[in-house]
Amino acid sequence: MSSTTTTPTTPSTPERKGRSRPALGVNLRQYGILAALAVIIILFQILTDGRLLYPGNINNLIQQNAYVLILAIGMVIVIIGGHIDLSVGSIVAMVGAITAIAMNNWGLPWWAAVIVALFVGALVGAWQGFWVAFVGIPAFIVTLAGMLLFRGLTLVLLTGGTISGLPDSFVDIGAGWFPAWLGEIGGRDVLTLVFGVVAVVLLVLQQARARAAQRRLDLAREPLLSFWIKMGIAAVAILSLSWLLSDYSGTPYILIILAGLILAYTFVLRNTIFGRHVYAIGGNRFAAMMSGVNTRWVDFFILTNMGLLAGLAGVVSTARAGGAVASAGTNYELDAIAAVFIGGAAVQGGVGTVVGAVIGALVMGVLNMGLSILSVDAAWQMAIKGLVLLLAVAFDIFNKRRGSR
Length: 405
Known about the structure:
By secondary structure, the protein is mainly alpha-helical.
């Protein structure tokens, strides 16, 4: 008599297709700095009796800190790739001097001088990229040498110390506003309000489209509630900004330039092969090389791009000042590096976002403006900014250790 033995069967694993992957939790690194910016704004709004968010102060915050925002966008790519650039302040000064000379001495129109400035900035970045990528000298050393070299060349170019009397069309790049082409309603610029509404609509559509793409590819996503809370906060911030600016002089030209740079470089880092290679090199250079990434050319283009954006920052700062000054750009590299680290970039590389760097630059800008309104001594302002930078890096290290545990 034979007996039949039934072997228990292990339930088969459900097929992945058609199932939604678990949503991502809220990223403390991503939202912590945004919360810190909000707290700083509220704190200074209270301490200054509401003066921080005056329309004129908001306009000045944008125009005075435009150079930091531009440099931070380039610097975050440098730091993600595992490098550092100490020369950007000197490049800003040298390019500003060349721009002023091109208009006043060479007789070039302002737009041609801007093209020359951007070309010189990219050329300088390529020069430094060559030494880093193909000779193998660390970026810290190359850009430290560049900081001294380009500052010296600036002093040679500006023998008189200053070049002023630049064309109004050029000055408007850093200190001008869009005309009220659509008129006014209740004393507010309609064009600025339209810019705000359009920006919100485009942001929501882009983020919703990205989330839908993640769903189609069955990738992990942040919780839906968190997503819409983030969109709501962003919409309120953009509309509030446009509302305040509409009551001043309208939309600054530089604000549109900054918005274009943020969108373009966010796309580059997130959606291009170059962006993925930058993250790969910063995360593990050896593994990236073994995976076929041409690390030399990626390093070269990282520094070339930084030089290009430093050239643009030189144009903007010169336009804002209305002239070229030999001392321009002093400590700009420190402001940019601080903004990137405050914005959540990792010291070791491989981690960081353009939006985070921009938020970090805004933190620095709001601190500067709030402390200035309160008439805090410049020495104490420097001390406070240094403490904020130290705490930001300590927070990054704490997150890493907690994650490893």
